[in-house]
Design goal:
10 strands, ten-stranded mixed β-sheet, alpha+beta, Alpha-D-Glucose-1,6-Bisphosphate, Chain A, domain 4
Length: 242
C-alpha cells in the first residue's frame, strides 16, 4: 500500500436522494474506516523484527509467529488497535475477578497476592476435549512516560510454582506459560495499539501442531473478547490520575 493510498479520500460523489444517499454515504464511511485500519496495520509491519513471520491478518489484527530454540512450540505476537484509552484497558486487565466473564474458557481467576508492581494470579481453564488446565503466574507491571505526555503500559507474566493451589487430580498443571501485554496510546490517547505476546504449551500432552493451532485461535478470540468487555463503563470510572 503506497503513501498515496493512505491519504483521506475526498468526497466527489454527486448528491443522491432518500435511501440511496444514505447508502452511498454509509458505503463511503465504511470504505474510509477500512482504509484507515489497513494503513494502521501496514505501518505496524515495519516495526516487527525480521524473525517474526506473519501468519494471519485482518482489518483489526495481525498475528506473527517465531521459533524458540529447542522448542517446537511457536511464540506468537498479536498486534491490534482497540477503541479505548490505554488506561481503560489496563483497568480491565487489573480486574482479575472479571476474567471468567470474558476470557475464553477461563473458569477461575483468583488473585493470590498483590505486591508493589506485581500480582500473583491462579488461573484455571476448562476447554473442550483436552480437559482442565491450570497455572499460577506472577504478573509484573511497568510504565514509560513518552515525550508527548502519554504513557505506555506493559504487563509481563511467567509461571510461579511456589504460590497458588497445589496440583489437583484430573487437572493438568501448565509449567510453560509466559507472555506480555503492551498498551501504547494512539490517536491522541483515544485508542490503543495492543501488542500481545504468548509462549505456552498449554500443559503439553498434545502434538505441537495442535498446540500451535489452538494458541493462534485463542489470540483471535481473546482480542474479540477484550474489545467487547472494555466497553463496559466500570473500566473507565477511574483514571491513573484519580
Amino acid at each position: 500500500m503506497s503513501d498515496t493510498d493512505c491519504r483521506p479520500a475526498t468526497d466527489k460523489t454527486r448528491p443522491v436522494h432518500g435511501f440511496r444517499r444514505i447508502d452511498a454515504l454509509a458505503g463511503k464511511w465504511i470504505a474510509r474506516l477500512t482504509l484507515s485500519a489497513g494503513c494502521f496495520l501496514t505501518t505496524l509491519v515495519s516495526s516487527i523484527g525480521a524473525e517474526w513471520v506473519q501468519i494471519n491478518s485482518n482489518q483489526n489484527l495481525i498475528v506473527y509467529a517465531k521459533d524458540r530454540p529447542g522448542s517446537s512450540i511457536k511464540e506468537l505476537r498479536a498486534v491490534g488497535l482497540v477503541d479505548a484509552p490505554s488506561w481503560v484497558i489496563l483497568n480491565l486487565l487489573d480486574e482479575v475477578a472479571d476474567y471468567p466473564d470474558f476470557m475464553p474458557y477461563t473458569t477461575k481467576a483468583q488473585l493470590i497476592e498483590r505486591r508493589t508492581h506485581e500480582i500473583i494470579i491462579y488461573f484455571r481453564w476448562d476447554p473442550p476435549l483436552i480437559g482442565a488446565r491450570d497455572v499460577t503466574v506472577a504478573v509484573t507491571q511497568s510504565s514509560t512516560k513518552r515525550a508527548d505526555g502519554k504513557t505506555n503500559y506493559q504487563l509481563h507474566w511467567e509461571p510461579m510454582s511456589t504460590a497458588g493451589p497445589a496440583p489437583s487430580p484430573g487437572v493438568t498443571r501448565i509449567t510453560l506459560d509466559e507472555g506480555s501485554w503492551k498498551l501504547e496510546p494512539t490517536e491522541d490517547g483515544r485508542k490503543t495499539t495492543v501488542i500481545y505476546d504468548l509462549f505456552t504449551d498449554g500443559g503439553g500432552g498434545l502434538p505441537a501442531f495442535v498446540i500451535n493451532m489452538a494458541n493462534r485461535q485463542s489470540v483471535n478470540d481473546l482480542f474479540q473478547a477484550i474489545r467487547k468487555q472494555v466497553t463496559l463503563p466500570k473500566y473507565s470510572q477511574k483514571s491513573p490520575t484519580d
